[in-house]
What does this fold into?
Amino acid sequence: MDKFISNVDCQKWLNVYRLYGTGFKMKMAKMKPEKGKELKVLDSWFQNELPAAIQERNEKNVTKMELCELMKWKLSRGKFRPRLQQMVESNSEDLIISASKKAFKHLPNLKKAIEELTVLKAVGPATASAVLTAGAPDQAAFMADESMQALPGLMPLQYTLGFYLQYMDQIKQILKILQKEDKTWTAHQVELTLWTFQFLKLNDPPLLIEAIEGSSKRKQENSNGDAKSNKKLKPYILCALIVSNATALDKNTKS
It folds into this structure.
């Protein structure tokens, strides 16, 4: 488990990525029921509906309603700060659309894209990263606390542009390795896998260990089992060959 980050294995990463839903349910279970239900709806919206809506537009952008919902999603995942929600709602529709259009056009330059979004009230690098992730998951990853905590050299956490770029440098390095085997991996999927890894590491280590080490152990067990089966079968195969040869010889003698 200790080498999960430093020695990237595509199958192990996929196993952990597939546990994101399980980990998220555990997170919701730790919350008050109504808060957990709200987060479930918001996360589904962020992961599915919002990206689809952005992709359908001629020019990628987010609306005021979407930015406000995104802020709710972000705050629901961590410490809720109502003042931020009020501040983001004070931005005008036109300014939000204009700033987000400019940001998406700057990609893959993450620095400039983030700078365009942070002109908005209450939008710092972390919220800006969420906007970019929703519209360009192949190029950006959300600045999730757990995802950053999983990576070496990023403690203590900071929420600055420079820190985000350091975080993304490591995301890109991991993504490059994963895409050698599977081109469909995205920066956002790497982030979700890191989140799942860190969350399960703290909340359900046995499940995480099974995901990382279970597949390789099963392969080894299956391989050993096949070898043992082959050893057991060899005498039977030999007997079958002897019987077959004897039958053929008998037929030739009779003929």
